[in-house]
Structures are given as structure tokens and as C-alpha cells.
Design a protein that fits this description.
The protein is mainly α. Helix content is 52%, strand content 0%. The radius of gyration is 19 Å and the shape is elongated.
Length: 164
């Protein structure tokens, strides 16, 4: 296989097989309140207004539900521009993981208590920060929440280091 071609994914499926998941992640991040989330017609209109690009509501729904995967580079570019992510987000695992981490951080920082905790921790010694991380990790374990670094795990199978 030519090195410039994308490698086939699981079971020979195309690289864009996770397009629906990635698109939904962006919609969820852009519109965190499900009650205020626009339908596909309004979303398609907002995309057209913001970017000048055109994706129909039906096609947007088909992409988001996984019914269609045959998206053009131009359509991906319009989606990337609208959602403020690099084009590579849609087909490069490393870029997608980095952007997803940034989206999770942005979502967490919408919570005033999370922001307050982060701001209060600023300036503490590395040892104090490690102690706080241990306390937070234990609280997450007690509440049966996944560890922040557990999605995904590091190369050795251990959770990724705190402090991204």
C-alpha cells in the first residue's frame, strides 16, 4: 500500500467510519444543553450562514446517524470550519483524541465549581497538586466515575498522566 494512502481501519472499513461519532461529539460540545440544541434543519442553516458552505439538513442527519459516510473533502472542510476544529479531526486518530480532550476540558470548565477548583489550585506546589489529584481520583472512584486519564489509557496500559 502506498504510504500516502490512509490505512484501512478495523475489518477493512474506511477511515471515516467514525464520522457519525465525531460529528455528534462536535454537536454535543457546541450545543451542550440538549433542550436548546437545534434540529438538523436549523443546524444546516447555521452552518450555511457561518461558513457559506452548504450541507442539507437531510444529509447532515444521515452523516450524524451513520447512514451516510460518503462525505466530500469540501463538506468536511465546512463542518470543520463551523465547529472550529482542524479538518484532520475527522480522519486522524491523534488529532481527534487531542481535540476531544480539549472539548472535554471546555465542557468541564463550564461548571463554576470546576473552574473555582482549578483556579484555587493555581500556584500550589507540585506535591500539593499531586495530593489534590489523589483526592479527586478517589472521589471519582467512590462515585464509580471513570478516571480522567482512563479514556484513553497510556501506552503502558496505565492511565494517562494528569495535567495534559
Amino acid at each position: 500500500m502506498d504510504s500516502s494512502e490512509p490505512a484501512p481501519r478495523e475489518g477493512g472499513r474506511p477511515l471515516l467510519h467514525k464520522l457519525d461519532q465525531r460529528l455528534n461529539e462536535l454537536i454535543d460540545a457546541h450545543y451542550p444543553d440538549e433542550r436548546k440544541r437545534p434540529g438538523y434543519a436549523r443546524l444546516a442553516g447555521a452552518i450555511r450562514e457561518a461558513t457559506g458552505g452548504s450541507i442539507s439538513a437531510t444529509y447532515l442527519w444521515e452523516l450524524a446517524t451513520g447512514r451516510k459516510h460518503n462525505v466530500t473533502l469540501e463538506q468536511l472542510d465546512v463542518l470543520a470550519e463551523f465547529f472550529g476544529v482542524p479538518l484532520e479531526y475527522f480522519y486522524n486518530e491523534a488529532v481527534q483524541e487531542r481535540v476531544s480532550g480539549q472539548l472535554r476540558l471546555a465542557a468541564a470548565l463550564r461548571d463554576a465549581k470546576v473552574r473555582s477548583l482549578a483556579l484555587r489550585a493555581d500556584g500550589l506546589s507540585p506535591a500539593s497538586l499531586d495530593a489534590l489529584l489523589t483526592i479527586v481520583d478517589e472521589a471519582r472512584r467512590v462515585q464509580n466515575l471513570s478516571g480522567v486519564g482512563e479514556e484513553p489509557q497510556g501506552p503502558s496500559g496505565t492511565p494517562a498522566a494528569h495535567g495534559g
